[in-house]
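Hello,

Our lab assistant flagged a job as stuck in the queue for most of the afternoon. It eventually completed. Since we weren't sure the result was trustworthy after the delay, we are filing this so someone can double-check. Below is the sequence as submitted and the structure that was eventually returned. Let us know if re-running is recommended.
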Amino acid sequence: MENRDEKREMVKLYTRQNDKTLYQLQRDGRIINQRIYVELHFGDIAPLFMESYDWFTKEAAKRVPKPEDVHAPIWCSISAENCLKPIDGTVVYVLEVPKEQVIYFDEAKWDYVLNRIYLPKDAEDARQYKQYLKDIGVANGFEFFQGRYQGKYPEEERRIIESWKRVFEIDQWTIFNVCGNLWEIREEWVKKIVHPGEDLEGLKY
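-- returned structure --
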């Protein structure tokens, strides 16, 4: 019988994860992320960022369907060169994944979402927005959601949130700004597991 996966376009991804995921992969045949893992990663500052992560999860699920038991995506690099190297307590998974399973986005734009500020579509839009803030007497665009302007500009809050969708629009494709997230890592997608001290650079494709 013909393997239907053979017709799929496959892409390479790389991701550093806690080495405890090795047991999850062996036990379940897949690795998934949980919201609590993201909270633990950020520690005390988690409350500041979780709304942004929850927004991303919701929007990403509109682009690639999310399994019901998954609560957060898995961050991946599109190249070995830009992947975090394995350190003690971690491993790097080298993956070959069907392209339609990948949520591509611009990590540079993600900083706007994480900081909960307006994401302009281009330089001219950024200039106009800066002038707009000046015209309405707002000195700091960081304070619409947390700060002196919180709750005072509901229309502006909606406008900012709507602008974040541009994080999925990639204007310039480079290994340094493009990430490819997954909802899960399936065992059959894992082509190599790189441990601390092993060479990752030699795995570039």
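-- support follow-up --
The delay was a queue issue, not a problem with the job. The result is valid. The helical segments are 21-28, 35-42, 46-63, 107-114, 123-135, 154-163. The domain at 9-116+169-196 is CATH 3.20.170 (ADP-ribosylation fold).
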